[in-house]
């Protein structure tokens, strides 16, 4: 049985203690650290930039799973790579040339991810799937934490899983948005390899990170 990876979103962490929060996540058994980057333009919120990622890099050896919700994203890929990102995930809507952006990420020695919003069809990235390391399926519309999971995306996860098996592709399927103890099992059964969760990990069971990570992983 495959091991499910958990990528806690620091969007739900205490921003005044981000370094310590990341250390706590590592001790609690996180596999990756999910960093949501928002520009107030592509999505209606603002978060953090390359200098913050660079400053946080020293707090853990866990991979930084960086989701760029910025437009135009191709102008900033190099900055986020240099700051210490390990996985750089972009949206097809935010780059002039998706194939070139994927190549740039990989040429910089990073894993390349592409994110699909709930209303972005798989066909948008079909010809690029062979080159992608990770497909991030959004189960909410990005921009805010704490939203409700959209069950209709389970079909998209299943389709991506079938495409991967049929074509012997190597991408991981990551799911982000409203992941909690009530929907994690169905998400994994649909084909997810990595679950992103913020509110559930940081808030449930009185903030017991280790317990919450284990419940999600073993759903």
Number of domains: 1
Query: How many strands appear in the DSSP assignment?
Result: 8
The shape is globular
CATH class designation: Alpha Beta
> Which sequence of SSEs, written as H and E, runs from N to C?
EHEHEHEHEEHEHEHH
Can you count the helices?
A: 8
> In which range does the helix fraction lie?
25-40%
Largest sheet: 8 strands, parallel
The CATH architecture term is Alpha-Beta Barrel
CATH H-level superfamily: Aldolase class I
Mean pLDDT: 95
* Structural class computed from helices and strand pairing: alpha/beta
Instruction: Please indicate the percent range of residues in DSSP E strands (runs of 2 or more).
Output: 15-25%
Main-sheet strand order equals 1-8-7-6-5-4-3-2
Through-space gap between termini = 13 Å
Low-pLDDT regions: none
Write the CATH fold name: TIM Barrel
Rg for CA atoms:
16 Å
């Amino acid at each position: 049985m495959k091991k499910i990876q958990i990528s806690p979103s620091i969007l739900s962490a205490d921003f005044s203690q981000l370094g310590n929060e990341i250390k706590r996540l590592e001790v609690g058994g996180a596999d990756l650290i999910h960093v949501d980057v928002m520009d107030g333009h592509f999505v209606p919120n603002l978060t953090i930039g390359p200098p913050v990622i660079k400053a946080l890099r020293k707090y853990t050896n866990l991979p930084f799973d960086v989701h760029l919700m910025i437009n135009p994203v191709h102008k900033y890929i190099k900055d986020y790579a240099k700051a210490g990102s390990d996985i750089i995930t972009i949206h097809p809507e935010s780059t002039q040339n998706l194939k070139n952006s994927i190549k740039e990420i990989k040429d910089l020695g990073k894993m390349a991810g592409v994110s699909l919003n709930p209303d972005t069809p798989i066909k948008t990235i079909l010809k690029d799937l062979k080159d992608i390391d990770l497909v991030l399926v959004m189960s909410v519309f990005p921009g805010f934490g704490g939203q409700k999971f959209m069950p209709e995306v389970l079909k998209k996860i299943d389709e991506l899983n079938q495409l991967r098996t049929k074509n012997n592709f190597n991408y991981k399927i990551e799911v982000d948005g409203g992941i909690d103890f009530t929907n994690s099992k169905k998400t994994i059964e649909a084909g997810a390899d990595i679950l992103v969760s913020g509110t559930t990990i940081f808030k449930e069971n009185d903030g017991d990170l280790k317990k919450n990570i284990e419940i999600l992983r073993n759903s």
